[in-house]
Amino acid sequence: MGLKPVTCKAMPVTVALAVVLILCSLVFSSMASVSYDNKALIINGRRKILISGSIHYPRSTPEMWPDLIQKAKEGGLDVIQTYVFWNGHEPQQGKYYFEGRYDLVRFIKLIKEAGLYAHLRVGPYVCAEWNFGGFPVWLKYVPGISFRTDNGPFKAAMEKFTRKIVDMMKVEGLYESQGGPIILSQIENEYGPLEYELGAPGKAYANWAAKMAVGLGTGVPWVMCKQDDAPDPVINTCNGFYCDYFSPNKAYKPKIWTEAWTGWFTQFGGAVPYRPAEDLAFSVARFIQKGGSYINYYMYHGGTNFGRTSGGPFITTSYDYDAPLDEYGLLRQPKWGHLKDLHRAIKLCEPALLASDATMISLGNYQEAHVFKSKTGSCAAFLANYDAHSFAKVTFGNLHYNIPPWSISILPDCKNTVYNTARMGAQSAEMKMTPVVYGAGFSWQSFNEEPDSYDVNTFTTMGLMEQINITRDVSDYLWYMTDVKIDANEEFLRSGKYPVLQASSAGHALHVFINGQLSGSAYGSLESPKLTFSGGVNLRAGVNKIALLSIAVGLPNIGPHFETWKAGVLGPTSLYNLNEGRRDLSWQNWSYKIGLKGEDLSLHSLSGSSSVEWVTSSMVTQRQPLTWYKATFNAPYGREPLALDMSSMGKGQAWINGESIGRYWPAYKASGNCAACNYAGWFNEKKCLKSCGEPTQRWYHVPRSWLKPTGNLLVVFEEWGGDPFHISMVKREVATVCADIYEWQPTLVNWQLQTSGKVNKPLRPKAHLSCAPGQHISSIKFASFGTPEGSCGSFRQGSCHAFHSYDAFQKLCIGENSCTVTVAPAMFGGDPCPSVMKKLSVEAVCS
Ligand code: GAL
Fold this sequence. Notes:
By secondary structure, the protein is of the alpha+beta class. The chain contains 14 helices and 43 strands. Helices cover about 15% and strands about 30% of the residues.
């Protein structure tokens, strides 16, 4: 019996599309243009060393994307990696959104236009300090669901979304197998540890996920990160601060590092982590010398958690991450430049790295050489000194090398050092936030939220209810309101010793209002989101209104079954010191209201803000809790990134022209140990911290593209009672640039000049100073050739100093956008201390 020919005409469109996709996927898998072997990914028949960086598209604006991608390319990246953010794409079940900051296809196409590859980590669980780890909140309420395990409803939903994304990429021709930029995908995220905890159902789910993904026939490999038992052909990969110890689970899989953490995330109340560039470069060089061929910086640009997208709870709005591109998309120097130099050095070694396995030669107790030699004669060597305290003098191939502590020297010809991870040729830059002056500042109008306003949306029930179950996360806010009757005989009415209210909440923050007055607040932290408010409350004889405003600060994104974690006032909630002793309020009638009145009225938007009477500027009172403020302003001139300095405020949210710039909470001060930190020695996220004692986050990014030339609407909702009159708009600029270079420090440029035969003697390094476009060098703040000490921003002269250290910079740099000065004694009036190892430190002011 012959098969009937299938014609599209006879089929509904969806079926036709499915058939086309199935046929296509069969074709893709047979002509896969990306494959792998033990050494590397193979693209169109060629092994490649690939340098990748994470840029999450919703953490910046589409207007910023081309510039970010271009700067990544200039920084030496081959690949851009991103997660796919399910809850951004399917905010309501079955209602999809792929526009604005969620225009995934546009983002991937921009990567292609820039000539780069893409790594699409579909997840759809992504962790990422993103609200609910990327899961839409409605998913939790699908009957019978259990996340990330062998559960029918969950697997069905996960497969549906994964397929949707893969099909979308295919239709747009975005896989490399179709001529597109996507060379790699990812399913799940760091499932290994959870699988271990869950046992058999975990294992079954991991296998299912891998099979489901592979079955989608993308024509490019899939990875599972932190998943030691990832089934073939899925590649298991490493995430961490160091991954040189990692080996894939099969000898025929390449060694891939999906998350090389460039810094760490920040939580409200915590100090701000940073990771020295020397240590990051060292960790990458360690990985490459051990045969790694693919490294992805997590994050290359961290960006901003706009709106209510941050997870945690308590993750800050800034997701800067100390990444090579800062939150605003500007180069973070010296990190960006130091990594760029590293990438060039690695690429010079690529032929040898890909052609052979390394031979390890011990050079001392803590010193090793890793040597790669190809049959065609190329040779590359990495000389490592793991000693965190001392320089190492080593001999390699009859030559002597002096390797700084905790560093690796890269020798692309097995002879000459072109790069050392602890020696920065790149300039560093100090940034500043310059206020943009608007006459007397913003001219505010205000609108007060009534703390206990009941309306049609209020409902009453006995007892205390879980918050997310009620709000479904449409708002951070949930009111818990109840009445308390106080008898005229109460002793405290005479003694003046107020009763104490104790209210226990599963998280995350709570404001207590008694008869309309703010009585106090309490809040948790990322480590312990739970809180108990305990404080004296001013009750009067008769009926008192207790209103508890419970606030979520981002839903959890990690942990076993984090979807079951609770928030809100779950009790016990009691009054103490009454005549009866303790009165338990937990089981009496409570009224609930989701969100704020101002949210119902969309006061943050242009249209909504005109729906109420605002108090005019002259009457606005400060330090009033639960207050909405609005002001209009014109866009500041220039192209520098903008931010709001919110240091005078407490806690709340802010919007520009209806777009949420996120949650602000400068009143939450950073705690931690901010002692000086040395790049040498093992790094972890607590090692290097800054901003202790200051607001964890003071500045909030205002994307330029959200502004019109005039008449922009700024709306702020303040919970605690901050001072809006001291909010200011600032622009982010380069303040000063520095170079800190040793004489005879090897550089790649000099090596290239020597190997090309253009020069035949060792060359001096050069100090490059470069202000941002549109700026010029206005003065030299510091210059010393000799033995200067300190770092950019705090250089000081050492015991040896050339008196003419400033001269060359005064002459060559002032008035210029950038300049170059050779680090040689002759430039500074002669050698100030022969036979001492000297360096140049210089700091120039950009204006
Ligand atoms: C990883 C995770 C990322 C991110 C990171 C910390 O374990 O895969 O999504 O959460 O930790 O920033």
